[in-house]
Amino acid sequence: MFHDLFPLDGTFFLVMPKEPIIELSEAGGSGASLLGHVMIVGEMCVAHLGLTNGFRMVVDEGPEGGQSVYRIHLPVLGGRRLGWPPG
């Protein structure tokens, strides 16, 4: 787990599987358990950090989806009120 040492507001960290998957669309059926595990690990980290009032997990894919790192990772945000739409 990577944790922002100098957060501007709230909490932000990444959960990244050891197995490199470039995009969600490439994961296929065999990636379902891995992606589910990444989400469960993210929730465990949220619990450890005490983010009891909610959090957001995000997966970006492709240029229009805002993907800038071409490896599946799960950004997790919390510790403050998150608006919608994001950004």
- Strand content of the residues, in percent? 15-25%
For the CA atoms, what is the radius of gyration?
13 Å
> What general form does the structure show?
globular
Mean pLDDT: 84
Individual helix count? 1
Protein name: Histidine triad nucleotide-binding protein 1-like
GO molecular function, one term: catalytic activity
Catalytic activity: adenosine 5'-phosphoramidate + H2O = NH4(+) + AMP
Family: Belongs to the HINT family.
Describe this structure in words.
The chain is an alpha+beta fold and 87 residues long. Helix content is 21%, strand content 17%. The chain is built from 1 helix and 4 strands. It has a 4-stranded antiparallel beta sheet with strand order 1-2-4-3, covered by helices on one side. Strand 1 (2-3) and strand 2 (11-15) form a beta hairpin. The radius of gyration is 13 Å and the shape is globular. The two termini are 23 Å apart. The mean pLDDT is 84.
